[in-house]
Structure formats: C-alpha cells, structure tokens
Amino acid sequence: MTFDDFKFDPSLMDGLYSMGYKNPTPIQQQSIPVILNHKDLIACAQTGTGKTAAYLLPIIDHIIRAPKRHLNALIIAPTRELVLQIDQQIDGMGYFCSVGSIAIYGGNDGITWEKQKHALREGVDIICATPGRLIALLQNGDINFEHLQHLVLDEADRMLDMGFFDDINTIINYLPKERQTVMFSATMPPKIRMLANKITKPDAEQINIAISKPAEAIVQQAYVVHDSQKEPLLKTILKNEDYQSVIIFCSTKESVKQLEKSLRKSEPSLKAFHSDLEQGEREDIMREFKAKKLRILIGTDILSRGIDVDGISLVVNFDAPPDPEDYIHRIGRTARASKTGVAITFINQRDQGKFSRIEDLMGRDVEKVPVPEEFGPAPEYNPHANKKAAFKKGPAKGKFRRGGNDSKPPHKSGIHRK
Predict the structure, then answer these.
(1) Backbone dihedral angles phi then psi of residue 266, each to the nearest 5 degrees
(2) Half-sphere exposure of 352 toward its Cβ, with a 13 Å CA cutoff?
(3) Separation between Cα atoms, residue 174 and residue 171, nearest integer Å
(4) 3-state secondary structure of 20
(5) pLDDT digits (tens, 9 = 90+) for 109-143
(6) Which residues of 122-143 are buried (b: 16+ CB within 10 A; e: fewer)?
(7) Element holding 151 (H helix, E strand)
(8) What sign has the CA pseudo-torsion 45, 48, 52, 57?
(9) Do 218-403 and 3-209 have the same topology in CATH?
(10) Given CA atoms 147, 149, 154, 158 in this order, what sign does their dihedral have?
(11) CATH architecture for residues 3-209
(12) How many CB atoms lie within 10 A of CB 402?
C-alpha cells in the first residue's frame, strides 16, 4: 500500500512527499480509511508507529475539501512538547494547502497568551491544546466550537495518568454532540475504556496495533548493578561513538540535574531537560537535539511520550522506570520509522522486581550483560527472591503483591555473579 491509495488531495500529497513520507505504517493503513469515512475510532498503538499522521492526514484532507473553512478540529494532548510537535507536523503536511493551526499550552507569558487569543479571533482550522490552558480559554469565552467536526485525544492514557480525566469531561461539554471522535492510546486500562465508551459513538471502530510490545528493531540489554556502578558504567557506554544521538532517563528531575553535573566534563554535548526550565529553554534544547547539535539529552518520563525525534541511536534507563508501560514508552524513542536502536537499562537491587514485571508484560527476557570486571562485583539478579523477601516484611511492602506469583521459579535470564 502507498499513500496514493487514500486519494488525498494533491496539495496534501505534496506536503507528504516534501516531509519524506513514503509508505503508510500499519496504524496508518488501518486508521486512515476509518477517519476518511467519518467513523469514530478507538485506536491502541505503541509509540513510534506513526499515529500522529494516522489522524492528521485524513483530517487535513477533510478540511481541504470542506465547502467553507472554520474551526474544524480540536486535538488534545497531555504535554506542551507533544502539542508543539503536532502543530509542527500540521505545518509541514498542510504547507501546500494553507491549513492553519495553533498550539495552546500553559507555562508561557502574557504575550503568548494574547497571541493565542488573537489567532483564535482571526480564525484557525485546527487547535492543538493541553487540557488546562484550553479550559481557561473556554471559560473566558475565547473559543467557539459551534462548527467543530473532529475531536482527537492523543496519548489518552497519559492524560488520565496526569489527572486530566475531569478536565477532558469538562471540555467535552463545550463541543457539539455531532462530531467525529478519535482516541489514540498506548494502553487500554478500564478507565480509558470507560472514557472511550462515553465520548464515542456505539459503532466506533476499534484498532489494536502491537499493544505493549517494543519495536522488534530495538536491541534491549540490561546491566545488574549497584548504584555506585551506574555513573562509571554510563560514561564507558557513552564513549561508543556509534551512539550519535542519546536519551538518558532518570526517575526524578533532581537526579537529572545531578547526572548532568557529573557528566558535563566528559560529555560537553549534553543538556538536561526538566520542568524547572522555562518553556523557551526547553524548546531551544529540543531544537538543538533534533538538529543533532546536541548529542545527549537527560530527562524524566516527560521525554518518554510525544518526543518525535528520528535517529535516536541509544536510550539509557539510568533508573529503571516505575511502571512497565513507562519502559515501553521510554525505549520507544529509538528504532523509530523502521530504523534500529539500542535500549540499555541499569537494574539495581531495589528495581529487580520492577524489571521482572516489565519482562512479564513484554513476554520476553531482556539480555543481561555482565558488568565489566573493572567496576567490581555486581549484585545477583534474582527478582522473584527479592519480591518474596519484600513481601515477608509486611503490609508496608504490599506493592510487591501485584508483581506476580511468589512461587514462580527463578527467572530464566537470571545471571548469578559471585
């Protein structure tokens, strides 16, 4: 299948080709016909599968063909970074067909706020927004959704994780009931299903693409380490010049700042990305990283969703992610657009249970690479023993009860080191 099969308007095809699009991905092949046929859609697809284009292309095509132009589509996303990237993709795809969009997000100054309101008064085809700032504009009467035809919720599971469930319901009340609703989510827990059933039509199409499975092109590895071994091991890994574009994930912004300080001397082409930075600083850092002027980016899970950068060769989980789904999103930053990549995770003794649950979710073991001898003895990898010991300590450690059956045999990939 090619994009020609969708019979898009020629001006949209010009935008597609100028951006380097060639053949549609599986999520695009399945979603685009549904949206072109004005059906509601609930789609579950992992990060990096091309889902943004899967909904933007048919919506832009609808706008081009509409007899009269007005505010046609609303796209809601959880973070400023994702909103800005969607807006940039619209700029590229709609370049030759004059489709206009505006990104609405918090964390900016009064001048930007006024510019957003002015753009809305002048007229725009598509709004890309975070929930909080959008509600503020709605409550001030700055947006009229009378003619809205398309609603898209992108990264719906992440929005609910961030506490936006009530905000989304508030926004829905401002929208016309007769509209097309499209929901994209990487996972489909019960609360997402409940929301989907509430805001979509009963005959909504449902699509599932590789749920909770990392791309096959990602080479996954893990090191079982003591905390003191993480930094020296990371510095050794980063000496590999084949890793030309790297993202490192830490558990907290404090860890991000500390690691940046520790690596600064040995890795000058490195910056930290966290919520304490001004929005302009964050945008500058992301532009540098996309343009390959910056080799290494350090951040928290804010980077794991919606950061659309091709050519990332290495993802390092300096701290194991707190949730199995977060692991999928983190390593999904590499091996995008049919390319290959490497994902390395450092597993300390506290995080062995977490990583075991990640392997259970994926249905596979991740290769455990021996820690080089010069870094000293490493801990044993025996996550099920750790979970059992933690469980015996009493109710305070009850969270380990969810990790699986304590009677399971030792993990097949366990490497025991003396």
Answers:
(1) -85, -20
(2) 25
(3) 5
(4) coil
(5) 666 777 777 777 777 899 999 998 899 888 888 78
(6) eebbbbbbbbebbbebbeeebb
(7) strand 150-153
(8) negative
(9) yes
(10) positive
(11) 3-Layer(aba) Sandwich (3.40)
(12) 9
Q: Tell me the backbone φ, ψ of residue 301, rounded to 5 degrees.
A: -65, -5
Nearest to 279 by CA among 108, 113, 88, 105: 108
**Structure tokens that stand for 356 in this block:** 């075991």
pTM of the complete model: 0.62
Cα separation values, 307 from 78, 79, 90, 312, Å: 12, 10, 16, 11
Q: Are 105 and 129 in contact (CB under 8 A)?
A: yes
Residue 15 near residue 92, CB atoms below 8 Å: yes
Does residue 184 contact residue 55 with C-beta atoms inside 8 Å? Answer: yes
Q: What is the CA radius of gyration of the chain?
A: 23
Give the start-to-end residue ranges of the domains of the chain: 3-209, 218-403
CB 80 within 8 A of CB 133: no
Written as six digits, the tokens of 213 are 């499975």
DSSP string, 213-272: ---TTEEEEEEE--HHHHHHHHHHHHT-TT--SEEEE-SSHHHHHHHHHHHTTT-SSEEE
pLDDT for res 46? 67
Of 80, 108, 277, 275, which Cα lies nearest the Cα of 116? 108
Whole-number Cα distances in Å, 409 to 221, 360, 361:
22, 13, 17
In the block, tokens 């950061």 appear at 307
C-alpha 33/C-alpha 219 separation (Å) is 33
Q: How confident is the model at residue 21 (pLDDT cuts 50, 70, 90)?
A: confident
Q: Which CATH superfamily is domain 218-403 in?
A: P-loop containing nucleotide triphosphate hydrolases (3.40.50.300)
